[in-house]
Design a protein that fits this description.
Helix content is about 20%, strand content about 20%. It is an alpha+beta fold. Strands 1-4-3-2 form a four-stranded mixed beta sheet, covered by helices on one side.
Amino acid sequence: MPIEPFIKCSDIPTSIKFYTELLDFEMVQAPDPDPSSFMSMYSFLTRDGAGIHLSSHSGDGIFGNVIYIHVNNIDTLYQQFVDNGLNIENQMKIQL
């Protein structure tokens, strides 16, 4: 049963850049370039068979959601993200 979360975003272009350039998602549906279009605030991305919806529509989710993603080889994946340019210093506190 695939689950595709809607992730509330305040800045769709910045969110797309993060997910595609740093986390290696592929954009399937890009936002409509017309800012007056309803679809200008939405994008759909996939990676390894999983999909996520990025949305800035008022009714699509809330800021601050938590999504658990189960992966194998977390160290390899983390290094890939760092190699892509991910820098988490001073951006979040990680509790182990």
